[in-house]
Specification:
This protein has about 375 residues and is α/β, with parallel strands linked by helices. The chain has one domain: Alpha-Beta Barrel (TIM Barrel), CATH 3.20.20.30. It is built from 13 helices and 13 strands. The chain has an 8-stranded parallel β-barrel, surrounded by 8 helices. Helix 5 runs parallel beside helix 6, helix 6 crosses helix 7 and helix 11 packs parallel to helix 13. The longest helix is centred in the C-terminal third of the chain and has 42 residues.
Length: about 375
């Protein structure tokens, strides 16, 4: 199974550990960080979405016009535009990028964040809207004849786009979440299902939930699986763990060590907190205090160790069926370079070896089956002649 790597397309240099020194959208930094990913073996970068943050589609268009290879994962919330308008925006961006776009649809797991931009639907209503929205976007990408739509959230007549994606039949759709509603929506609509990094056993359970949801939706193919981590690497294990503890101290200092936390609304963050409360270290390298320090905010569980240790940990997830590995360090630029130099080549080389071994084994099995069939045919011919 091929493996891909997803990084972050930040438009400024701030992180959980470091105050921003750039503008919210800094052209030079955005391009510099993206080039670091492209030059060091990453496949794609994520333009995230947040209320009040720079508009990601415009930033992605800027990046696409300056780089030739790096693929783009564009986060989009259905509450911020009408689906027919969004479909045209995405198709145009796919044209600008010459077919390098994937769209990540965000339903929204926090009521306060959603209401900042006028979205007052309940969580279940948001998931219903997202499924309807994705269906309209897919149809707008592929239908060359005018069509009508009347659903719970959207109604229009006689729409047909004049701009279509480069990718045929359409760009891929990415989706994430850890609730029952998320599994149902993503299992039905997603080409890629995104998970936050959890212990191997719990990740395996989530993958099976996604596959079950896809089967329940009548799909013959299940979504590809993406899992996200915060890598903390150093030349030795001792140095890596020292770096990890410094990282958590910096997160706490930035957030306010004594600030009381609140229980997150979304299921994914609640899972991260539950895992952190049950233990700090899991499996080969998973470390939860980074998630605990942020209150389970987003992609926040770390993989700690030497590049070799972190690569082996990522391969453990690949063995579960994960073929897109998302990683974002706390010093965005330096960590993107270091991860690309020291971790990605190890993972790619080992995956290639394993894939070659599987192909060789499959070829041997096929040859043995052909020989066995030939022997049966020979015996049958002898029996007929006798």
């Amino acid at each position: 199974m091929p493996v891909e790597f997803l990084g972050i397309a930040a438009t400024g240099d701030g992180s959980e550990t470091t105050a921003r020194t750039t503008a919210a959208f800094d052209r030079d930094y955005t391009l510099r960080l993206a080039r670091a990913h492209e030059d060091h073996g990453w496949d794609r970068v994520l333009f995230a979405y947040a209320a009040g943050a720079p508009e990601p589609a415009a930033a992605a268009a800027f990046l696409a016009s300056h780089l030739d290879r790096l693929q783009i994962l564009l986060a989009h919330r259905p509450n911020v535009s009408y689906p027919t308008f969004a479909a045209k925006t995405f198709a145009t961006l796919d044209r600008i990028s010459d077919g390098r776009l994937t769209v990540h649809f965000i339903t929204g797991g926090n009521d306060h964040e959603q209401r900042r931009e006028g979205d007052f639907l309940t969580k279940d209503q948001r998931y219903e809207r997202t499924r309807e929205y994705i269906g309209i976007v897919k149809k707008a990408w592929t239908s060359h004849e005018p069509f009508d739509h009347e659903g719970p959230h959207y109604r229009f007549e006689d729409f047909v786009s004049d701009v279509f994606p480069v990718q045929q039949p359409r760009p891929a759709v990415s989706f994430g979440g850890s609730s029952d509603a998320a599994y149902a929506a993503g299992g039905a609509e997603a080409d890629i299902y995104c998970l936050w990094g959890e212990p191997l056993a719990r990740t395996a359970e989530q993958i099976e939930r996604v596959r079950e949801a896809a089967r329940a939706a009548g799909r013959s193919e299940t979504p590809r699986i993406q899992v996200a981590f915060r890598p903390i690497i150093a030349p030795t294990e001792e140095l890596a763990w020292e770096k990890a503890h410094r990282t958590v101290a910096a997160i706490r200092a930035r957030r306010g060590a004594d600030r009381p936390g609140t229980t997150p609304e979304n299921a994914g963050s609640r899972r991260l907190i539950e895992i952190a409360e049950a233990g700090e270290r899991y499996d080969r390298a998973l470390w939860t205090p980074t998630a605990a320090a942020t209150g389970g905010a987003g992609n926040s569980n770390a993989l700690v160790g030497t590049p070799e240790t972190v690569a082996e940990a990522l391969l453990d997830y690949h063995d579960l069926g994960v073929d897109i590995l998302s990683a974002r360090g706390y010093h965005l630029l330096d960590d993107a370079i270091d991860f690309g130099r020291y971790v990605i080549p190890i993972v790619r080389e080992e995956v290639a070896k394993r894939d070659a071994a599987k192909a060789a084994e499959a070829a041997r099995a096929a040859e043995a089956a052909r020989a066995e069939q030939a022997e049966r045919d020979r015996h049958q011919l002898i029996a007929v002649q006798a």
